[in-house]
Amino acid sequence: MNISDPFENRKECTSHPFRCWVCIGVFLLAFSWVFVLYDPLASAGPETILDLQPFRQTSSIEIKDAQGSKGLATLINLNANVNAWYLLRLDWRGGVTESYHLENADPEKQRLALDSHNPSGLAIDHGKDRSVCELWAGNSRDRLTQARKSGVPYAPLCDGKLYARNPTKGHQTPIEAVTEFLRKNVPGGEEIVSFVRDTFFAYLYERKAEEKVQERPSERLSQEEANSGPASASLDPREGNRTVKPTDLGIEIRQPSPNGMAPGVWYPAKENPGIYVSVIVPKLIAPEVMRSYRNVVNGLDNVELEGLVYLVAFDLGRFDLHYSLGTEHPEVGWSSHIPDQMRNLAFPGPDGIGTSAPLVRTGLVSPTDISHTAATFTGGFKRVHGAFKYGPLAFKNRGSHYGFLENGVVFSRLQPELATIYVLNDGSTEMKTWTESDNDLLPRVRYARQNGVPIIAGVDPASHLSVPGSLVGRWGPGNWSGSEDMKLRAMRAGVGLQEFRGRRFLLYAFFWSATPSAMARVFQAYQCRYAMLLDMNALVHTYLAIYKRNDANLYVQHLIRGMSEVDITVKGRYVPRFLGYADDRDFFYLTRKEMP
């Protein structure tokens, strides 16, 4: 069989360009058909989000209400390994169906069940003890109705042993509301949003990044304080006697110096054990770091080199990490960002679903966690940008939409080759590039969020340097966003994992105006073994707050002072985001562990 050179007829293409374009078009159309024909969704797709749950357990019993009407109660433990969320469905004769998304207030010690010997409500097993919470017999049927009508995101039931999760409208800032309207309702709206972002906001945040830092002799921390925190950044030894004044820092630190903070050093947060704050200027990073991996990391311009970066570290020996979806974002349908041929129009989304119903997303910290929540920070991209438009990943797995799980429940499947932060059932926090074999971990995964590709992908065992991800310097294949003309510098936030002296720290970094390459250099300097992008472009998207409690009072401190504008005031009372009101965006939060 002879295979001809595909370019041997290039003269014909030159003389008949229209004919060549027709051939190319036919080829691309056939190429797109291949993706549709072999789409695994095409054979059998899930009908609801319940079909995505591989570890669910279902039981049913016959029931009667106070009037003697018969029905069927079905209880679904959405992930029996995690035991946090249940769906209760009541199917009454006559076609009336009621569904309630229930949250277990104590998933480690109690389980919910249906008991045919006690068909008036839910059985609650706590160790060897069983109690029955009547919910649909006698006058108790009003309890579910009242919980639904209460309008609160979490309505307590059964003396607070469980909560009914109720739909609520998540808060949007005016800027978010306008951009959401433009994207969904105005032709070319995405381009309008991009223009405003790439001109006005880019200018504003670039000016912030260019603010000159003050340089004075530094006052070092005591050896005891230095040993208690994360590893300091690797700096140029010639720049060791400097301090900077972080004028935007909103977190109080212990023993602040009038001269400012020494770059790369961790300062304990005041009266908040296990939380540390650091600042760094990239031009001060050690030369061996800045010279490394130039084949994948781009050079930094003067704005990036001189811009002040703010970081917070959390000692994971003292805190547990949690993840919560916003009331709206990220969505579960198709991203408009992906190539057209990767979208199977027979299904409303890449996982076969277009809505999270009948499950309820609250956009709010669980009431069982509020009293010991120590910090919150925003999650990743919305679904519209949470998939690939260019590069190899755009043509894999239906566009490689970013996956996410909450309380062991799959809302969007985790995709291979994507940067992933996840929490296991034992409370351990991990970060890695997901692989197909990692799906074996799913029975143990309680929370997970993917967002693009890694900024830091590992550590070189020989040099001990953090290794940047292979796509850090590539705008399209890395899906780094930024501006449409491929200018990557923008306000950004990222998260990294550092291990130091047998302890593990979660690092959050905020950049006024930076590219992924600048982020990589900073996370390298702080010796992170993995790091990934979170969100970008505005303070509402890069929000981080920590909390202090004094008796009945809650004190809120933001990493950047301007982040306080995202919080709201109700009847003269300050209400913090994620703790006091539901938000439409996803977020992480850290709860303080009970120390022995």
Can you walk through the features of this model?
With 596 residues, the chain is of the alpha+beta class. Helix content is 17%, strand content 29%. It contains eleven helices and 29 strands. The protein has helices at 10-15, 17-37, 141-149, 174-185, 189-209, 223-228, 287-290, 302-306, 397-400, 475-478, 516-525; strands spanning 57-64, 70-77, 85-92, 96-104, 110-113, 121-126, 129-134, 154-157, 162-165, 267-268, 275-280, 309-315, 319-324, 373-378, 404-406, 409-412, 419-424, 429-433, 445-450, 454-459, 466-468, 490-500, 503-514, 530-536, 544-550, 553-558, 568-570, 573-575, 587-592. It has an eight-stranded antiparallel beta sheet. A hairpin with a 4-residue loop joins strand 17 (419-424) and strand 18 (429-433). The protein starts with 9 loop residues before the first helix and ends with a strand. The model is unreliable at 1-40 and 174-205 (pLDDT under 50).
Brief account:
The longest helix is centred in the first third of the chain and has 21 residues, at 17-37. This protein starts with 9 loop residues before the first helix and ends with a strand. The chain is α+β, with helices and mostly antiparallel strands and 596 residues long.
